[in-house]
Amino acid sequence: DASDTEKGTYAHYMLKEIDEQPIVMRNIIKNYQNENNELKLDADIRSAMKAADRIYIIAAGTSYHAGLVGKELIEKLANIPVEVHVASEFSYNTPLLSEKPLFVFISQSGETADSRAVLVKIKEMGHPALTITNVPGSTLSREADHTLHLYAGPEIAVASTKAYTAQIAVLAILAVDTANVKGIQLDFDPLQELAIVATAMETLTGQKEEIEQLARDYFETTRNAFFIGRSGDYNVSLEAALKLKEISYIQAEGFAGGELKHGTIALIEEGTPVIALATQENVNYSIRSNVQEVVARGANAMIISMKGLEEDDDSFVVPHVNELLTPLVSVIPMQLLAYYAALHRGCDVDKPRNLAKSVTVE
Ligand code: G6P
């Protein structure tokens, strides 16, 4: 049950919340479907999405990373252009807006001050807003025109895990629902695909020992680490790096595989950990050549691939899911890697130094 606020037998909330992700997927499926197994969303949200000529996603931290995945889902499935902005940047450096913008605020807590500042500003400008949040009745929910709930249950660990996957799942549902409303024919049933994801997540959370061993091999003493990916995997590499930074204090960066050679590769030394995600068919060849480039310069590389695209030497293979939803499964080994890295380095996993669960000041 994801609504429990006790740690129970878990050493840390973070591990408990990682394990709750399959339950959260099933909660979302249940709450966003009607008796006929069709998607269920409020009519006013449907009209707001239909009316928008461009969507502006506003968020911070992990929620911003979920927004990057959401952009891909909404553009590919619902055919609406999407921009994703870090809230604190948007406030002071507001981009040119389209004629009929719809603002989508993504926030686990619904209380992030930077996001609220943008909401206040765009409301003054007269634009509509939808908030996607885990906390019904939160500030961002109350002050927006519409709300979509994450149904993830309370998230207590400072490092966000189940809220990230819940945000992506709800964004996938929103994207497909909008496509339906606009009469776009899709060969993609999000409720079925998310059920497959939930099962894959269960498999992954049952593979903790394997991931713990990888965390020992790669992160026990390192100062830094690089995560690389292309396309959908690039978005996840950003979140993977953030997770590792937040709780293990290892300096970590996520990079687009193709961008490495334009600077970052200069940092690769003997033994530098490079974690490559390879779950996207169209870039499978290119990301693997990036790995060869860093290995040739001494990197300690790990490839995390997906069933169907795997090769013999890959360190870990996640179960196959629909290509648009791979972030929901590939992020789980990333969360667990960060968890075990922090644990073995003696860090305070649930309450990392200098960080707050929700930042209510600018
Ligand atoms: C804080 C938390 C992060 C979170 C970010 C945005 O920095 O430490 O884990 O991603 O705020 O929070 P929100 O509640 O708006 O998703």
TrEMBL record:
Residue span, SIS domain? 45-184, 214-352
| Active site residues of this protein | K357 (for fru-6p isomerization activity)
* Record key words, sorted: Aminotransferase, Cytoplasm, Glutamine amidotransferase, Repeat, Transferase
Q: Name one GO biological process term.
A: protein N-linked glycosylation
Question: GO MF terms on file?
Answer: carbohydrate derivative binding; glutamine-fructose-6-phosphate transaminase (isomerizing) activity
Q: Where in the cell is it found?
A: Cytoplasm
What chemistry does it catalyse, as a reaction equation?
D-fructose 6-phosphate + L-glutamine = D-glucosamine 6-phosphate + L-glutamate
Q: What is its EC number?
A: 2.6.1.16
Signal sequence annotation: none
| Broad class of enzyme this protein falls into | transferase
Q: Give any Gene Ontology cellular component.
A: cytosol
What the protein does comes down to:
Catalyzes the first step in hexosamine metabolism, converting fructose-6P into glucosamine-6P using glutamine as a nitrogen source.
Record text on subunit structure and interactions: Homodimer.
State what protein this is by name: Glutamine--fructose-6-phosphate aminotransferase [isomerizing]
Write down the species: Oceanobacillus polygoni
What fragment of the full-length protein is this? 239 to 600 of 600
